[in-house]
Amino acid sequence: MTSVREVPTVLDETVRPETDVVQALARLRAVESQMMRRRQAHQGLGESDGVALRLIVERADEDPVTPTEIAAHLELTTSAVTSLVDRLVKAGLIETRPHATDRRRKIVVPTEAALAGDALEDRVQEIVDELSVRSRILIVGFLDRIAEAMEREAR
Predict the structure, then answer these.
(1) Whether residue 67 is found in the same domain as residue 123
(2) Number of domains in the chain
């Protein structure tokens, strides 16, 4: 596997920047999808469960999600989300808690099991730490633009 340090600094005839970035991004998406399916199968979860769990983890620190928000995000009925939440609770990956300002509502938060021990996250951080500030700025800008394009396409 190519490490950050092995990436060529001068383009040669084997590096085609107009296609290599697109191919690398496609490979990343394919590998991530495969990894998510493997993890979900290991945990006995379906694709919607995995997407919901990712949303719950991403929002945990800023503004925890409600079941209604999960339903809107996944375009599922509230009854389907109730079953989904029950599966994730049973798997020990999330908890439901009363909403801070509206006791009729509840929020969904990840458990320590959902947050802990992701060796891949640690490895990604190590790779990021090897990058220069300039490289990080360029990569973040690129990934933000790709994410915006994907969000537009998803609408």
Answers:
(1) no
(2) 2
